[in-house]
Each structure stands twice: as structure tokens, then as C-alpha cells.
Design goal:
The protein is α/β, with parallel strands linked by helices. Helix content is 48%, strand content 16%.
């Protein structure tokens, strides 16, 4: 999709449904279910606990009242004088007042230090009243990061979270015009600091006592707790108080001043069970929560409540993530409900929980940001400085946050993003798809086979059991040198403890699979070492073949060629490549065939005389195969891409033009809005206005460039060549025993006997013994078995059928044996003896991989006595 198409919200809203369906799929957490129908994400319950401030001459209530009077006085003056930094400074005190006494006390200390510095500079003649005014105007440009960014967007620098650094600067904002005004405010701040210290140092805080009550609740005995706060100062207070109460060594902490390594260490400390020395409590700031996985804990406490709705929404989702196993998860909010700010916040939080119950869905916690996207909670909280304002704010939230509003948001998003759909309705179809995918997996059979064959070629031995846990042992010096760097990425106890079964991964072992570093290193070594031999070619035996043929494995590619005149097309770009098998008969005819055909071949012992002449044509054959791969396969892929682009060209051109039209209109509106803010004295808007004007000037040229790129792209798409990986000469077997094994009539009799047996058990039987029938059943061309039987109750059997005219050993191909390893109890071996007689005899073996002993001879040979010993008749 061209990025210009959805350049604005309006452009997105008018984007047609049929086009959206191509690009978007919408899934909400509430919809997500497991294949058995149980929901993936647990229920969220939000419980708001109110506490009362202590009363008295030296008390929390006295500090609250005195601080509020100070905020009211200076905040109102700052608004009248249009001093953004001074307003910001007052809101800091209001927020920290609601967080903790220690956070407020720390802010008063910083405010006092700023005032002392300014007063000293004025008294020393370093600052004039004019310079003071200029400094204050400069401070007006400070960004209130707590509202302009979410916690995940916030950065850290010099051991400080971004919002803490911004608040530290803003505390220098003042409305004072002269030295006398500054000294008056300094005296007020000293008095407030003195009162805050007297309240704090006795060590009694009502909110903290409420927190301890939560910890001591019998319902949450032995559970872990996450405590979130906006402020590093509050985090320091909480950690000190908890450790002072005897929880030393049981408190983990994460804040934005830590690097990722330190954060990971603290998360692991918290993850570890208490009896093993782990922490019971994790205290974290919002900015430190980004990217950490806390699903092993199900109780989260909001020690303070963010005023930014997007941050509040993020908080509500911290433990409500994929992998959370406890149902429900509990979110506890601590609020001083009788304070003005607490009344507003409690109204908000109680309303969220009420709507959750009414809707019977906790989706409300995921749309807080959208509910308040055009309304500022910050403004409501600033109104709450007065009793009248607090009442108005609470009433406004009560009216705004309704069940109908949440449903309206859901409906709007449904229209914009499409139907999420009830995934439960899709389960039957998805379960059918999954049941088919089971028969196409590489794990563990093919990975096991690769490890078993690759390690001897690397002079590596295997100690232990390939079917449980094993280790590598160097058979010659340096054999493991190429693997150690990958193994050392794991904790030491896990290094060189390996498994090919996911179920054993929990036993402190490395689970080998594609994409895992140790397995990938194995593959890289084998491919690097034997690539020249694979390209040189080899001789193989095809027991089912009547004549020799060549088999080539190749990558065919499609690319978009470069056009230096257009920046997006400055370099060639690979668009598609496909791994294909090519089969080439003696008459030179080339046809595409499944790549699994390689798995059906056996290693040959030299070149049979009857195939020598054919083998000498290999160079011409390879060139002929190359021409076919480029001219037929790659050309078809390229043409398909071109046709798709050309067919959609008119519609995409319209979308681009509309996208730029909407962008032009939006920029015009934004320019008018910013011009108003600049005239109102908001300094930050000046730079943004310059940017908008520059964007408007560029718009026409960008539109023309986008349309040129759109029309040029189909012309640049072409086949990019072919890269051969393997050449093989497959010759018929000269072994009479092979001919007996491959007798078509005997095989058909055996298949018929097996089908009759299954149908006698009222099973639905699908014959998948050749590529056409396998594809018809939704499987790979060579699925590794002959029959797919679906019995009553949903039991499925993948049945490999072997027939013998009389009795004797049977041979299973490597492909069939790998599939038996993958499917285990689902895989059955049906051997039909005496097919040449009037009374064929069926022997059935469930899980032949686990029950039979085999010996290698091209494929796997299973002796007659093994079959009768393990089978059912």
C-alpha cells in the first residue's frame, strides 16, 4: 500500500471496505480464544480503594489544604499572565500531592532551590528584571512529557526519566516580576516544606497503610504484587518503607534510570519464587514498564493515577497480556476519595468498573484513550483545585463516560477497521486447517533426522537419547568450535543439553528447530561444506522409476529493477523467490515437481551402465532446466505481479490523489489553528507552524512523484534469474527385492484391504497415496502415508500401507519414517501379507516409530518378526 493513501484520519475513514479487507484484519483481546474455545486473555477487575487523610494541626489534611491554597494563588495568576511554565509548575505540585508526601516534599525542595538561585542571581546583579522575564518566556517552551507522550514513548537520559527532567526545569517557572515577589513566594515554599517534613518524618502515611492492608489480605496471601507510580521519588519512598518494615531482599524495583540489563535483572529477581530468594514486591515507574513481561503476576496496584488517559490505559494493560494464566487479574487503585482530586479520579475509576460490569467486557479499559481523545483529564484535574471545579469535573466525567459512549466507539472502530468477528464462529474451520497442518510439520521427525545425519559429517558424536535429551561430543579436535558461540548464548546449565522435542525444553535443554541459533549453525555448516558437492551432483536410486531422469532443486526469483531517476527505485529489489523442483526426462522435457521428491530417493552405488549416456547430457540438461525455470516459472510469477499492479492502478491512483487532497485540507486547518496559538503567545506553536508551511509547499511535488512511482513500478518487474542448489541423477533400482516392494498390483490390493478394514469401523477414508489425491485432501504431494482415516469421535489415523505377495521384510522411506516420528500415536503402519493369495492378512501397528527396531538400507528396513511381534491382527 502506498503510504500517501492513508495520510489523514479522514482519508482512512473513507477508504472503501473492499480495499481495507485486503490490508487489515481486526482482532480484539476480548475475542481471542484458544482452539478449545476458552479465552486467552483473562477478565480484568478494577477495584478502587479510598483512604482518608490524617487530621490535625500537623497532618496530611493540613498539608493538603496549605498546598492547595498555594496552588490556587499562583496557578490563577499564571493563567491570567499566560505563563505556561508557571502553570506547569503548579500542576506538578498538584499531581505529586496526590502521589506521596515524599514526592511533594522533594518537589518543594527543588522549587526552593530554584527560587534561591534566582534570588541570589538578582541580588548579585547577574540577572535583571528584564532578563528574568526573558528566562521565564524561554521556560514556557518546556514540554509536559506526562501529557504529550505515553510511558512507552518516553525516553531516559542521565539517570532521569524524561518527564522528571522536564518537571525539574519547569519548577523554575515563576510569575514573579521582581525580587520582592520572589522572596514572598520563597517564604511560602519554606513554610510548605517545613510542614511537609513534619508530616513525613514520623513515618505515618494513610495511603501506605492502605497499601499494607492490601498486602495482608488473606485472599492474596503468598501472591506477588506490582506497584506502579508515576514518580521516581514515590518509588524511592516505597522501597525504603517496605525494606524498613523487614522486606529487605524481597523488593524489586524498575525505573527509567536503569539500563535494559539492570531492568532484566530486577524482573528475573521478581519472577523467581520467594522460597528461592525472589522478590514478592515490584515497585516500578510507568516509563520503566515498556517492553517488560509481567504475566507471572496477577495483582497490580496503582499507587497514584496518571492524568494522561493513554498512560492510564497502558497501566490497565501491563499485566493483561498474552501468557497471563490467572483469571481474573486484579487492578487496585488507591485514591484519597474525600479530596477534590480524589473525588474526580474515583468517579472516573468507579465508572470504568461499572461499565465493565454492564457490558460484561473489560474492553472499556482498552479505550480510555479514545474516550478522552478530545477532552483533557488534566483540565478536569486542574478545575478540581476548587470545590466547585471538582464537582463540575466529576459531573462532566459521569456524563461523558457512559455505556453508550463505549458502544459508539466500538461501532466507529468496527466501521473503520472492519468486523472483528466472533472468532468462536471460525473455530470449526480453523480446527480443520490445524488438523491438516499437523501432517505438514517438520518437527520433530525431519529435524531429528537431519541432526542424526549431519553430526557424523561434522565429526560430532551424540551422547544420550535423540528422543529425549542429548549432548554433542567432539570426535576430533575443534569439531564443536563452530557451535559453541551459539550454545554460549544460553545459560550455562543449558549449554550442550539438547532436544528436538518442545516438551523437553522445560527440562533445561535447548530445543533445536529452524530459527534456533544452534540448529541454524548446524545447517549453515552443512550447507557451506556440501554446497559444492550438491551442485556437482549425485547419483540416487528411485525404486519406483522405470527410466533415469534428472532432478534439480532451484530458487527462481522475481525482482523490481532499479530506476535511478526515482528515489524509491534507486536499487534493484528482490520481490519474490520460490524453491522449486524440476524433473527432466530422457526426451529433454522439463516439468515442475514437488521438492519432496528428493526425500523419496535413496543413495546410489555408482552409475549404472544403462544410464551413462544419459548422464553425459547433464550440462545441456541444466541449461535447458534454467531456460524453463526462467522462461516459464519465473516469467509466470513476474507476469502475475505485473498484472495485479496494472489491474489495480486506476483505483490506487485515485486513492493517492484523494490522500493528498485530504492532507492538503488538514494542513490548512492545522495552519489556521497554529496561527491562533502563536497570536495567543504560545511559543511552542511557532516552530510547528513553520513545519506546516514547509509541508504545504512540498505537497504538489510529492503528489506528482508518488503518481510517477505508481505508474512506473509494473514496468520494472522482471524475472531475476535462477539459482540452482542441487542436481541429482535418479536411476531405476536394479535390485529384484525393490521390484517386489514396488509391485503396483500388490500395492493396490494392500490399499484395498486397509480401506475395507477402516470402513468396517465406520471410518471416512481418504486415499492420499499419490500427489493428485494428496493435494485433493489438502495435504502435501507426498505426505508420508497412504490413507487418512477419520473415525467416529474425531480420531484421525495417518496410515502407511505396505503390501507383500507372501511374507517378508518391508521398507519404509525416510520421508515416511520422519512422518511417523512427527505423528507418533496418530501414525499407523498397516502391513498386508499374502496379497497374492485369496486370503490377505492384515497386521496393524500403532506408533511404529516408538515400537519397531529398524536398520538402514537406503530407507528403513523392518524385519518380518518385528512386525508380527508389535502388531495387531
Amino acid at each position: 500500500m502506498e503510504p500517501e493513501v492513508l495520510s489523514t484520519d479522514i482519508a482512512f475513514s473513507v477508504y472503501p471496505k473492499h480495499a481495507r479487507d485486503v490490508h487489515f484484519i481486526r482482532r480484539t483481546k476480548e475475542e481471542m480464544v484458544r482452539y478449545d474455545g476458552t479465552r486467552i486473555y483473562p477478565e480484568r477487575i478494577s477495584d478502587t480503594l479510598s483512604y482518608d487523610l490524617s487530621k490535625g494541626e500537623i497532618s496530611e489534611q493540613a498539608l493538603y489544604d496549605a498546598t492547595t491554597r498555594y496552588i490556587q494563588t499562583y496557578y490563577n495568576k499564571a493563567r491570567m499572565l499566560n505563563r505556561a511554565a508557571a502553570c506547569f509548575a503548579m500542576s506538578i505540585f498538584q499531581r505529586r500531592l496526590a502521589s506521596s508526601t515524599y514526592a511533594l516534599l522533594s518537589s518543594f525542595k527543588r522549587r526552593l532551590a530554584k527560587l534561591d538561585e534566582i534570588i541570589d542571581d538578582i541580588q548579585a546583579g547577574r540577572i535583571t528584571p528584564e532578563k528574568l522575564a526573558a528566562m521565564q518566556r524561554k521556560l514556557d517552551d518546556i514540554e509536559d512529557v506526562s501529557f504529550s507522550k505515553t510511558a512507552d514513548e518516553e525516553t531516559s537520559e542521565d539517570d532521569q526519566e524524561e518527564h522528571d527532567a522536564a518537571e525539574g526545569k519547569a519548577l523554575g517557572g515563576t510569575i514573579a516580576a521582581n525580587l520582592a515577589d520572589l522572596e514572598v513566594e520563597r517564604m511560602q515554599v519554606r513554610e510548605l516544606l517545613d510542614l511537609a517534613q513534619k508530616v513525613y518524618y514520623p513515618g505515618e502515611e494513610s495511603k501506605f497503610e492502605k497499601l499494607l492492608g492490601v498486602f495482608q489480605d488473606p485472599k492474596s496471601k503468598n501472591e506477588k504484587f506490582i506497584i506502579f507510580t508515576e514518580y521516581r521519588d514515590t518509588l524511592v519512598f516505597l522501597v525504603r518503607r517496605l525494606e524498613g518494615l523487614g522486606y529487605t531482599g524481597r523488593v524489586a524495583q524498575i525505573h527509567g534510570g536503569m539500563d535494559y540489563h539492570e531492568r532484566d535483572e530486577q524482573v528475573e529477581f521478581f519472577r523467581k519464587p520467594e522460597e528461592e530468594g525472589g522478590a514478592r514486591y515490584l515497585v516500578a515507574t510507568d516509563a520503566a514498564g515498556e517492553g517488560i513481561n509481567l504475566q507471572f503476576c496477577w495483582i497490580m496496584i496503582n499507587y497514584d493515577i496518571p492524568w494522561n488517559p493513554a498512560r492510564l490505559e497502558q497501566r490497565m494493560g501491563r499485566i493483561h497480556r498474552y501468557g497471563q494464566e490467572h483469571d481474573p487479574v486484579l487492578i487496585i487503585n488507591l485514591v484519597a476519595g474525600k479530596t477534590r482530586e480524589g473525588r474526580v479520579l474515583k468517579t472516573l475509576l468507579d465508572k470504568l468498573e461499572k461499565i465493565r460490569k454492564e457490558l460484561r467486557s473489560d474492553k472499556v479499559f482498552d479505550v480510555i484513550g479514545r474516550v478522552f481523545e478530545d477532552i483533557s483529564i488534566k483540565e478536569y484535574m486542574e478545575k478540581a483545585i476548587t470545590d466547585e471545579g471538582a464537582g463540575e469535573a466529576a459531573n462532566a466525567i459521569e456524563g461523558l463516560l457512559t455505556e453508550e459512549q463505549i458502544r459508539a466507539i466500538e461501532e466507529r472502530e468496527r466501521i473503520l477497521y472492519g468486523e472483528g468477528g466472533d472468532i468462536r464462529k471460525e473455530l470449526a474451520r480453523l480446527q480443520d486447517t490445524l488438523s491438516q497442518e499437523i501432517y505438514c510439520r517438520l518437527l520433530p521427525g525431519y529435524v531429528r533426522g537431519f541432526v542424526q545425519k549431519a553430526t557424523p559429517l561434522m565429526h560430532i558424536g551424540i551422547e544420550g537419547d535423540l528422543d529425549t535429551i542429548f549432548s554433542f561430543r567432539a570426535l576430533q579436535s575443534g569439531a564443536l568450535d563452530g557451535l559453541w558461540p551459539s550454545m554460549e548464548k544460553y545459560p550455562e546449565p543449558k549449554q550442550n543439553r539438547l532436544t528436538v522435542y518442545r516438551s523437553h525444553e522445560k527440562e533445561n535443554a535447548i530445543f533445536l528447530h529452524p530459527g534456533e541459533p544452534v540448529f541454524d549453525a548446524l545447517c549453515q555448516y552443512i550447507c557451506g561444506k556440501f554446497e559444492p558437492l550438491a551442485l556437482k551432483g549425485g547419483v540416487f536410486v528411485d525404486p519406483s522409476a522405470q527410466r533415469p531422469c534428472f532432478f534439480h532443486l532451484a530458487l527462481v526469483k522475481v525482482e523490481r529493477k532499479a530506476d535511478p531517476a526515482l528515489k524509491p527505485f534507486a536499487e534493484n529489489e528482490l520481490l519474490e523467490y520460490r524453491l522449486v523442483g524440476l524433473k527432466q526426462e530422457q526426451d529433454g522435457q522439463v516439468e515442475e515437481c514437488p521438492i519432496e521428491c528428493l526425500l523419496l530417493l535413496r543413495g546410489g552405488q555408482g552409475l549404472p551402465p544403462s544410464s551413462i549416456r544419459f548422464a553425459t547430457t547433464v550440462k545441456e540438461a541444466i541449461e535447458s532446466a534454467r531456460v524453463h525455470a526462467i522462461g516459464t516459472i519465473a516469467a509466470s510469477l513476474a507476469e502475475e505481479r505485473k498484472r495485479s499492479l496494472i489491474n489495480s492502478l486506476p483505483e490506487r491512483e485515485t486513492f493517492i490523489r484523494q490522500g493528498y487532497d485530504y492532507q492538503e485540507a488538514e494542513l490548512g486547518a492545522r495552519r489556521a489553528e497554529l496561527s491562533e496559538k502563536v497570536r495567543a503567545g504560545e511559543a511552542w506553536a511557532k516552530q510547528e507552524l513553520v513545519r506546516v508551511k514547509e509541508r504545504q509547499r512540498q505537497l504538489f511535488q510529492l503528489r506528482e512523484e508518488a503518481l510517477t512511482v505508481l505508474n512506473r513500478e509494473p514496468e520494472l518487474i522482471d524475472p531475476a534469474g535462477v539459482e540452482f542448489l542441487v542436481h541429482a541423477l535418479a536411476v531405476p533400482s536394479s535390485n529384484p527385492e525393490d521390484r517386489m516392494q514396488q509391485d503396483q498390483v500388490i500395492e493396490e490390493i494392500a490399499i484395498r484391504v486397509a480401506c475395507l478394514y477402516e470402513e468396517g469401523s465406520e471410518a471416512i477414508v481418504k486415499n492420499v497415496s499419490n500427489p493428485y489425491l494428496a493435494r485433493k485432501a489438502g495435504l502435501l504431494d507426498w505426505p508420508g502415508f497412504d490413507l487418512l482415516s477419520i473415525r467416529k469421535g474425531g480420531e484421525e489415523r495417518a496410515i502407511e500401507v505396505k503390501g507383500r505377495a507372501q511374507v517378508g521384510d518391508i521398507e519404509i522411506s525416510e520421508n515416511e519414517w520422519a512422518k511417523a516420528c512427527n505423528l507418533r500415536d496418530r501414525y499407523w503402519l498397516y502391513v498386508v501379507y499374502n496379497c497374492a493369495s485369496a486370503n490377505p492378512r492384515l497386521v496393524r501397528i500403532q506408533d511404529p516409530f516408538g515400537k519397531l527396531v529398524v536398520r538402514a538400507k537406503g530407507g528403513m528396513i523392518i524385519e518380518e518378526r518385528e512386525i508380527f511381534g508389535a502388531g495387531e491382527t
